[in-house]
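S., here's the first fold you wanted:
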Amino acid sequence: MKQILTLLAISTLAIILYSFSIQKNDIASAFKQGNAQALSSDFDTVVDFQIGTQSGKVAPREAVKKLDAFFRQNNPSGFDVVHSGEKRESGFMVGKLTTSGKTYRVNITYKVANNNLIIQSIRIDESND
């Protein structure tokens, strides 16, 4: 009985971790493709949003508009997750966004609610790489 419970717990954890992995891949894919709309359902009710020196707390719809405008001005050609981490109900991703003209460092923080990643903040800074 103990082995069955242990196996069940491990299986449940594996499914949850796999689900988070898929969601992180979806976020990375949206950045790589320049698809702001793909992130719209992943945003928290208020998103701390920063591009360069422009920052503020915005509604999800406004975050999509700002990100879409950024992608139109900076056509993405690649996105690689450089680092990520999770602790309890929160996590972060650091990525390198390559565009037609420049390279950017992207920092994303999120919380975990109902087995979904909810994006709380996005910060995009020009990189010196």
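And the second, which I think is the more interesting of the pair:
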Amino acid sequence: MSLTETTKVKFDPGFSQFSTDFPKEAYSYLDEISSLKQNHQKKFAFTHLESQVVPIIKQCASFQLGCILWGSYLFWKYKNDTREIEGNTVISLSEEEKSTLNYSDEIDFILGFIDKFEKSAKFYLKRSSRIDPAYIKYFESYKQFVKLNDDFKNLKLTSEIKLPDEVAHFENHSEQKLNELKQKIDEIINLGNLENILHISFYN
């Protein structure tokens, strides 16, 4: 079957508009807090940082989970009817740009920060941080996802998508279940609240 315009599917259903960069200076904030002299100052500063950082981490986790779910939908929905993927901007990058592209580094940066942040929360606040532990699983799964797909540098067909272990259960999803996922993703994008992706119960 020839791949015509009508058989193409989107690389991005609309998630990119909600993409958030994790601040590169995040670690320095923790260093600044540790340099404060008084414990009450450290506690106050860390609590303030937590209120700012946790929503960013939640948004990043939502985006990455959304990408995994969309990739899972595309692969299994068109398992027996391969479609061409359109809109993958990574393909159009120069060879030099592709050679330096490594999404895993970004994920490792976030995971490293979360680990340090969690230890700091227990030290300053005597409790766990307000970062949902499930986010770590999403980040680790997304790291596997991008590695398996070579950062999407040559991804052109739905049949070429490789999925992380955490979504192996999608093999058992019916056509109706996959259509339900697509509908929920469309609703989330239309409503403009990507964090709702964390609550649609398709991941597990």
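Why I say that: The first strand starts at residue 9 and ends at 10. The first helix runs from residue 26 to 34.

Talk tomorrow,
H.
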